[in-house]
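ok so for the tutorial part 2 we go from a plain amino acid sequence to predicted structure tokens. step 1 is just haveing the sequence, like this:
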Amino acid sequence: MYNYFNVFWVGGLLCLIGQILIDKTKLTPARILVIYVVAGTLLSALGLYQPVVDFAGAGATIPLTGFGYSLAKGVMKAVATSGFIGIFTGGFTATAAGLASAVFFGYLFALIFKSKEK
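step 2 — the prediction. this is what the tokens look like for a chain of 118 residues:
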């Protein structure tokens, strides 16, 4: 039961920080997205994000910081197995399923629904 609680509060905290950034700064959602992905990548490269993942599981891997974590982890693994070329291929290999599903479902929903102006 405590695992679910940790997932909830860590994921919620990451979302809360993002919402505060939207409400209190002039940062656009796209810039906040980039900040989260880069932060996840840098924290992973420094070895600081893995303890958060171990503690919170999906609460740390599902938000955008988790995407940066997956990119960094994929690059580190590919460099260990393939050498220098792993810098360029590792991130794509590690996140291919998520990227492909995002493109597929984005396209599918674009076919089904019509966008409206505000």
